[in-house]
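Quick illustration for those who missed Monday's session on complexes.
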Amino acid sequence: MHLGAVFALAWLITAAAAKVHTFHFNVTYVEANPDGLHPRRMIGINGQWPIPTIRVKKDDTVRIYVDNQLGDRNTSLHFHGLFQQGTNAMDGPEMVTQCPIPPGHTFLYDFKVQNQTGTYWYHSHSGSQYSDGLRGLFIIEDDDLQRRLKYDEEVDLSVTDYYHDEAPVIMESFMSRYNPTGAEPIPQNSLFNESRNVSWEVKPDTTYFLRIVNMGMFTSQYLYIEDHKFTVVEIDGVEVEPQETDSLYITVAQRYGVLVHTKKTIDKNYRFVNIIDKEMLDIVPDDLELVSTNWIVYNEHKPLPKKLNFRKFEKTIEQINPIDDFTLTPVAKYPLLPDPDYQIKLNFVMDNLGDGVNYALFNNKTYVPPKVPTLMTVMSSGEYAVMPQIYGSNTNSYVLQKDEVVEIVLNNMDPGKHPFHLHGHNFQVISRSEEGEEDDPIVYDPKNPDHNKFPEYPMIRDTAQVNANGFIVLRFKADNPGVWFFHCHVDWHLEQGLAITLVEAPFDVQTTQQIIPNHFDACTLGNMSYYGNAAGNHGDSKQEWLDLSGENLQPEPLPEGFTTMGYIAMAMCTMVAIFGISSIYKYGIQDIHTEDTEIMIKKLYDIIQQYEN
Ligand code: CU1
Ligand code: CU1
Ligand code: CU1
Ligand code: CU1
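Prediction with copper (I) ion bound:
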């Protein structure tokens, strides 16, 4: 048999094995009470919440018909970590690759799962909506994994922070001038497999492969099993050289694949603990259980160890020392990418704009969604697609050339930690600083030998944390034409505009990809345009494509110094203060005389009245 025939036969076998999975997802509200403390409605699928785990194999095709029956809200689905090669339109973030799915519309996600296996998840990408429950696991199975990793059984586990109020209610008070510091909403609880006080029954002397996902909105979590070890073998779908650790630190949107080998004896049960990272919270309410206890159960006739005192956070945290993901090396040894062809430097701060609301700003610009989804601007703009301006003044858009090495340098001038996520790619994390001081952040300096000690085989993942007042440097190859969002996965921060848009190889997108009529229908039904620049303007000339009149823009900045009103208020305050002090002095050294005091108070009152009018 000659080589050609072998190749053809192998291809036939793959083709025969690849499946088409068709799902009909009826998205509705479902009554639930995940923490047992507060009945509320969650967003479910086909009348069920939690929503199903999707399990497919590499090279399978996934077809999901999403019927939005919420009635009062748009929706969307994003498949977090999937490359969507050739199917950028199926990626899901609204106003980036698609219009939101309006109530009553059935939207089709149709894509092939290629060139990746491992642990992923899927969630709504409409505002902060996945907080309301539209979040689930997406597993791409690898037939050879069990043999390679030598495990007996596989178990899925999600952790998440949990809010009693629905996301739109939270958003109203969060993005408000009455919350000028941008204090993030504090969750009411954390969930473990969308529940609490969970028991996991295990067999002795057995190796489990645990796929762990943090599907939360905001808080990272520490995880450990008392008296057991985790062997990390996968991060964000990337297989890594096994490393043992006592505990994990997992930011929102990250995944860890770990092996747990159980004990030979069944005389005891153990705690499986998840802990909210307290450092991320502006305040810790007395009733918030930072430390949550679940159990691994060897023997149901033996007692469960009692719950840990959730207030004794500091004591618990001292004992755990989670593995640093920077030390994890991919099994497929991808060497450090060469020096970049293109560098994107992002300085990030949180600040107030003219409406008094606190926003997240990259190089002084907050992300504001365009009027036309950016992918649809690419598809409709022909030769003008390479001009970054057409994607809008407030979408933080960068146009990338096919196959160039891109480096993102992110200087975090904010005193919080942030997990950054890139759609459509994994990136190498080549440098990451420690936490800096609030008044002295650590800014990346390529000439500083401590900053440019890049690993030979850097860690690869799709969501990585930048430390407070520190920096992170990421590299990837622009080998996946499409429009890809890069943003903080703390969804409250995304709502504050902590995002950029990467328009990768736009001409290749135009020639290799298409948008199906069903997706245009979503725009039409939602009274949105799917043609034109970020403002929906278009025409035959370059000038018309560069015309952004009517585009969505961020609020004006807060005025410098004092406004006229400010000066008047200041002058009034000063006068009243001087008058007050002189009165105290004048009357303070006199004998007490009630009549004079009354006249004085009246005079003061009259003056205040005059100014107020
Ligand atoms: Cu994603
Ligand atoms: Cu995500
Ligand atoms: Cu963030
Ligand atoms: Cu995203």
